[in-house]
């Protein structure tokens, strides 16, 4: 054999699996269709958020979390309701145990560290037993996505030096081989050399082929978010409505889902393909890296949210609360876009942009840079750059001028100035009291009861139309593709299951291609910080099982 195990995909899940195999003395080949500078895959572009339960960071901020509360939140969000959800649910329960137990100390021992203020993502739909995080659990890794990748890449490269791991870039798998009733290797194409930067679109000219044999094959090739046609094909029309005609891509083009079909040809079952996670706060990148490059705004709770016709979105469609409910509501209007309306006071404290490249202060591990960029009258420099150069951002001193610019941007006179003013003024009147019937005002005040939000994430309540808080800002929001929640059906050990639910001898899957474990351990909704964590957890399980 050429190796004990072949890993298809050099992203985070693949690196974790390779570390476990090589640590156990196994010889590993990693196949990656992109160039060497793409090692680490999609995780490189992330904010580096990890879902921990009852962490030291939480306890320092007086957040009372527990395994039982986290599992309640997870199951309330997942809403498992299908017979094939047996392994997704088992994997979810095991992951919550991992997140409440050895995950943080295990990663800490490798050198990972986290920003001391825990983020409160995906706050939910309004019921304790339903979707959402009851408490803040989003831990930003110092170094963001590259900081999460670094310890695993370092270990892999040490094994490369020791002869236990071989990296084969520009190798695109197209067939999983069988021999004697079990998986025996991988065959595919060798692509032309590529010198493009990480994330940029690389060439697909074939210059050769390959065939490699191994005792185990682990598929860790990612999801479908870079192929908008595949996203639309899998779109759950009955649940979310028709797919958007216009979307922006939150992941590079090579997140193409090819290996899902290749694994199916080898006998793998795919489940929950209709479950997906796309964001509603996407803006077009003014300095794009990949085609149709979109960036997600990570909003605090204060921006007013309006649909394409200028009608305010109802609760729980509030910034940062319930992603899929908001997506469904927006699409039900018959339009693909919506609007934030806010002030300079809100944008400077509440706006963050998702991604390692949009957060150079966190990515650089510099406390000084973080303090410099996130204090003063301006928003962090990347946000100010979007405000100045992004085509979706409008800045005006007067609401009438703002509305004119909003209608000019879309080419449709959908926004009526008097109607928009009435809704904003009604909201502004609620600021005069410390109590309110407005769900968003109540949510803002609730957020500021949490020290972390009060310090760095939630602006003090103020009147949007008061010129002292200006200028006024409108942001057109696009649907942004991101994650595949379903995928290749596996058990807790990452063994790929066939249509009858039996393991396929020698075949494993981990990461997004496997729905982050089990074939979809999120169920219908994600609690955030669980994508990188799912890659780590499922990659570790698959690597350890394959090594045995």
UniProtKB/TrEMBL annotation:
Entry keywords, A to Z: Flavoprotein, Oxidoreductase
Residues in FAD-dependent oxidoreductase 2 FAD-binding domain copies: 4-532
Swiss-Prot/TrEMBL cofactor(s): FAD
Keyword Amino-acid biosynthesis assigned: no
Record-linked SUPFAM superfamilies: FAD/NAD(P)-binding domain
InterPro entries: FAD-dep_OxRdtase_2_FAD-bd (IPR003953), FAD/NAD-bd_sf (IPR036188), KsdD_DH (IPR014614), Succ_DH/fumarate_Rdtase_cat_sf (IPR027477)
Stated name of the protein: FAD-binding dehydrogenase
């Amino acid at each position: 054999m050429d190796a004990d195990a072949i890993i298809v995909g050099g992203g985070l899940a693949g690196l974790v699996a390779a570390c476990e195999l090589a640590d156990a003395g196994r010889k590993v080949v990693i196949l990656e269709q992109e160039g060497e500078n793409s090692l680490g895959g999609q995780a490189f572009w992330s904010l580096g958020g990890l879902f921990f339960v009852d962490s030291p960071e939480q306890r320092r901020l007086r957040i009372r979390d527990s395994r039982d509360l986290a599992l309640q939140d997870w199951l309330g969000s997942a809403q498992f309701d299908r017979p094939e959800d047996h392994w997704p649910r088992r994997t979810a329960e095991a992951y919550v145990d991992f997140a409440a137990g050895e995950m943080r100390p295990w990663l800490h021992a490798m050198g990972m560290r986290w920003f001391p203020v825990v983020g409160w993502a995906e706050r939910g739909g309004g019921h304790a037993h339903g979707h959402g995080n009851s408490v803040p659990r989003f831990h930003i890794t110092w170094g963001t996505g590259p900081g999460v990748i670094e310890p695993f890449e370092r270990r892999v490269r040490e094994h490369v030096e020791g002869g236990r791991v071989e990296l084969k870039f520009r190798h695109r798998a197209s067939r999983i081989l069988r021999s004697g009733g079990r998986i025996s290797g991988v065959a595919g194409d060798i692509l032309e050399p590529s010198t493009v930067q990480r994330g940029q679109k690389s060439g697909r000219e074939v210059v050769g082929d390959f065939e490699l044999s191994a005792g185990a094959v682990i598929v860790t090739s990612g999801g479908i978010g870079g192929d908008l046609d595949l996203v639309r094909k899998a779109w759950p029309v009955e649940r979310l409505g028709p797919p958007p005609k216009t979307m922006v891509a939150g992941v590079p083009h090579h997140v193409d889902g090819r290996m899902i079909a290749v694994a199916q040809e080898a006998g793998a079952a795919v489940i929950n393909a209709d479950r997906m996670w796309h964001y509603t706060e996407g803006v077009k990148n003014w300095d794009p890296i990949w085609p149709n490059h979109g960036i997600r705004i990570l909003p605090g709770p204060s921006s007013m949210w309006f649909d394409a016709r200028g009608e305010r979105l109802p609760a729980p469609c509030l910034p940062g609360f319930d992603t899929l409910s908001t997506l469904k509501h927006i699409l039900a209007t018959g339009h693909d876009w919506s609007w934030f309306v806010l002030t300079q006071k809100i944008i400077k404290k509440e706006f963050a942009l998702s991604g390692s490249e949009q957060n150079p202060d966190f990515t650089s591990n510099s406390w000084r840079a973080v303090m410099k960029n996130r204090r003063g009258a301006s928003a962090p420099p990347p946000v100010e750059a979007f405000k100045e150069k992004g085509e979706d951002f409008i800045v005006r001193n007067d609401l009438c001028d703002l509305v004119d610019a909003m209608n000019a941007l879309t080419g449709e006179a959908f926004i009526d100035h008097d109607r928009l003013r009435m809704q904003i003024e009604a909201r502004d009147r609620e600021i005069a009291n410390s109590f309110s019937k407005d769900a968003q005002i109540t949510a803002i005040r609730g957020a500021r009861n949490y020290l972390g939000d009060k310090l760095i994430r939630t602006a003090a309540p103020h009147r949007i139309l008061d010129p002292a808080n200006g200028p006024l800002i409108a942001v057109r929001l696009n649907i942004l593709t991101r994650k595949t929640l379903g995928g290749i059906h596996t058990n807790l050990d990452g063994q790929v299951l066939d249509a009858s639910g039996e393991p396929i001898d020698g075949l494993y899957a981990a990461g997004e291609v496997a729905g982050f474990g089990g074939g979809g351990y999120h169920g219908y909704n994600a609690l955030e910080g669980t994508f990188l964590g799912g890659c780590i957890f499922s990659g570790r399980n698959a690597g350890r099982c394959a090594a045995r």
